[in-house]
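Dear colleagues,

I hope this message finds you well. In preparation for our joint manuscript, I am sending the 5-formyltetrahydrofolate cyclo-ligase (Rhodoplanes roseus) sequence together with its predicted structure, so that both groups work from identical material. I would be grateful if you could confirm receipt.
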Amino acid sequence: MTKPPTDPAAVDKAALRHAALDLRDELAAEDRAAAAAAIAARPLPVTIAAGTIVSGYMPIRSEIDPTPLMRRFVEAGAGLALPVVRGRGKPLAFRAWAPGVSLVTAAFGLLEPSPEAPEVTPDVLLVPLACFDRSGHRIGYGAGHYDTTLATLRAAKSAVAIGLAFAAQEIPRVPANEWDARLDLVLTETEVIDCR
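The corresponding structure tokens are as follows:
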């Protein structure tokens, strides 16, 4: 049996995560699609140089769909990658992917590139989340995959983390710890929030 968390920040995060996911789930499908289109319709938030790799994700549950924005990055000359979960506490791996290429179903029903796809190191990461604040802190699903990944990547190179969210997912303050990796930008259907 798993013990309940004793760290007050962990308890706060769990409650905030639950409330944020409930709120996100209540958004109508057409509103979610309109939000994804609105984000993709704006100018790209970062400059794309030759060889830039952008990691996206395949949406699950009621997450905002990053694929319209991912197509925009491809149009600007970026290569794409998708994350691969390697286990709790381990950084994500990233495999090259292109729209139209088949994906395989992995743990938790996540869609990932096949094991034959080459591993790459992204320069830009599109990050899903449950909720966020304007300082760039986010609450994810609790496994710490993106925190660990961003710490590892940023120790080796410059990597830009862009949270994708509905405006309704913003909260006044995320109870953050020293190991929580901050987002550089958050894109919602209403604005681009620069957290740097």
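For the figure legend, we might mention the following. The radius of gyration is 16 Å. The chain has four helices and eleven strands.

With kind regards,
E.M.
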